[in-house]
Design a protein that fits this description.
The chain is α+β, with helices and mostly antiparallel strands. The protein has a domain of 88 residues: Roll (Structural Genomics Hypothetical 15.5 Kd Protein In mrcA-pckA Intergenic Region, Chain A).
Amino acid sequence: MARYTGPVCRMCRREGLKLFLKGTRCESPKCAVERRENPPGSQSFRRGKMTDYAIHLREKQKVKHYYGVLEAQFRGYFRRAERTQGNTGQILMSLLERRLDNVVHRLGFGLSRAQARQIVCHGHITVNGRRVDVPSYLVRVGDVIRVKGRPKSLEQVKNNLTEVHREVPDFLTLMPGDVPEGHVVRLPEVEDISLPVQPQLIVELCSR
């Protein structure tokens, strides 16, 4: 399955809530969810009552679109969560929240997760002093996520921090300074996720 390259606002309209896929546009009156309440397509309303399977599927698709992962990647995270002792749903969401591109976004270095992914891929971010250009890299407690000291890297991130004052989750600490950096103080929990989600529905679907 290839990555979706169409209008991302359609994803938000399909789920009926903001997934914050377009940065500052999602927080402006131009947001497609606020302008159009109906799902994308020619139909003017949601037809019929959703089946249990459809409800479970939409919950999974919502999370996939939110974090920007494909089906194979998502299944990999789920298998890892299953092998880990504890609540599978909570562990799954914690793994997704620990992705480096997500952490860069939550710190405010990127206006959206797509932009944060690009920032990571272009080598603008270091973890514990080493350049990491893999968006799916999972951060650990004690990791220091720092912007590379190059003028181009600093300019882009500082502009993003100035444009949007995003609330940093409790599992991260932001140190702005001349070279912005963030610290991972603990592993993320379900309460740290800004997306309303029911992980148990996803577990039930993927366990079939």
